[in-house]
Amino acid sequence: MIDGHYLNWQDFADLCQQASIVTVPLVASIPFNLAEVKRYSEGKTMLMQEQPHIREGVVVKPLQERNDPKLGRVTLKYISDTYLFGDFHQLSVFLLSIHPPLLDEVRLRLRRVVYLPTR
Predict the structure, then answer these.
(1) CA 55, CA 71: separation in Å to the nearest integer?
(2) pTM across the whole model
(3) Which residues pair with 58 in a beta bridge?
(4) 70: region left, alpha or beta (phi > 0 left; psi from -120 to 50 alpha)
(5) Cβ contacts of residue 27 below 8 Å, gap of 6+?
(6) Of 24, 57, 66, 79, most Cβ neighbours within 10 A?
(7) pLDDT at position 20, please?
(8) Collapsing DSSP states into helix, strand and coil, what is residue 65?
(9) Max Cα separation, the chain?
(10) Is 81 left (phi over 0), alpha (psi -120 to 50) or beta?
């Protein structure tokens, strides 16, 4: 942030590089696509090479800083299903066996908890 304003991504990255400040790894620079964001959220962390644990998720930012009237600064975090649900497979199989629509409802409710807007 300079003079109360966030920098666009490339300006921020350039400034950090000039000052020898290490930033978090850039996973990808792609047009927004929720399926791709979900795909990139999975996997091993990029923060450590030896014995990496699961990736918590990814932060999604526009290349050009902007604000939304309701949300404020447009910066979102997509938390990976693996991190959020853990070993969700066994629960999924059980829910599908008793009431398939319940599985989608559980996923939706768990995600709602994560995405409550804060100010």
Answers:
(1) 25
(2) 0.62
(3) 78
(4) alpha
(5) 40, 46, 58
(6) 57
(7) 92
(8) coil
(9) 58
(10) alpha
